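Input chain follows. Return structure tokens only.
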Amino acid sequence: MRDVAAQHHSEQGDCQSKWKNHLYYGDNLAVLRSKIANESVDLCYIDPPFNSKRNYFQIYNNQGSEDRAQAQAFVDTWEWGDEARNGLEWINDIAQLNNGRLTEQTVELIKGFERVLKHGSLLAYLVHMTLRIAEIHRVLKSTGSFYLHCDPTASHYLKLICDSVFVAERRGGHFRNEIIWHYLKWSVAQRQFVSNHDVIFFYTKTDSKARVFNTLFVERSPATKKRFGNARIISSHSDDGSRLPSQVSGDSDGVAMDDVWDISRVPPIKQLYPTEKPEILLERIIRASSNPGDTVLDAYCGCGTTVAVAQELGRRWIGIDITYQSISLILRRLEGKYQNNWPAIESSIFMDGVPRDIASAKALAARKDDKTRKEFEKWAVLTYSSNQARINDKKGADAGIDGTAFFLKDKGENGKAIFQVKSGGANRATVATLNSDRIREKAEFGILITMDPPSRSMRTEVSAAGTYRHPLLNREDDRIMIVTVQEILDGKRLDLPMSRQDTVKSAAAIDDQIPLF
């Protein structure tokens, strides 16, 4: 796999020489193995899905299979299945030791976990993380740094894995800090102390003298100022003692930052993603362990906080996520933040894994596993709506609705369009059912996205559904619209009268209330 990654890196030619930020849509293990070159990353931060306490408490009394109906991509549930079995088999393959991809300590550690934890959800989670941490070690430069964000339910297991990958004999890596991110949140009385922190492990790949660490500073407390005044404080140095750029040096009111960070969580009303982290948290990490122009990798980029902060701080970035909803949110976030410069910024992003032709769209539609089986619908709805629609992520039956978009009818009322996506087999009955769903949902429009061109009988059904005239505009549109995947690939986009541009507020809508103008 190393050769494949190196070859991919060299084949990008002008793209790499001019550098484009990279946004990968796909499984991060596959992307890391095949598309990220050896020693090409200066800093990697990951905030993987935490292993839930529900699974944590089943360590020694494995209670069988989880409820598959509850399984979703990046929800904190794991199960022992083919992915975990294949991963464990790969770890136990002696070839991985011989070619240096794994250390003996890592292999023996996972064998020990298997004996103690058995084949259950926690072991599946740890195998998942081991495979990816091993690849992150490979892609880091010798001067690179790695930050792993986790919670106390599995942090002790993850630290053992990181130690076996980074600090093992002949690897030369170092464990630097266990950072405690302390925050305040609403809590209720419990028969234990209130849990109000996460853990961030900080490792470096080697003890290289060129390793970057820019000491950050916090303001002195009034008592400290009174006692010591503005005495010279610690400035930023590399491991060999040479001076490195920092925010503050010389006489200052600041003191070197310690490993306990009090940072408030993002207020829920402003969240883009259920597990979104504050930008200031990522700003500290990126400022400390990289310099402008360095490459920052986030292999679980979610709503793109790492990407957004890296962009703002002048770092190159690589983001990977398995859900198109996250890819859409990242693009939407950057576009909203850099409206005036968005065309130039968008052109600087190398997109990989997003369908570009019918063949790749059909390949996406053919995915059957639980984590990606609805990705085709998400890609189709979000791409056609220019990332404006909401995806229906409700568990269980979706009642024929894959997404919803809104438009303004007048100053006091929103209109609604519902989406249905068909990867094949759409016919007249499909259109008739969509219209019935539209009426039930009190939506003005029903939009069918289909892989195949509409038949004559489908177009007849569209005509039978009638038209909608906007109360404020001299405009009339079909209540049922059909758009093909090929048209989306050719650039066709949703055009609703007085379309709302502010409806994408979160990856999963908390409720159906959309603010009015």
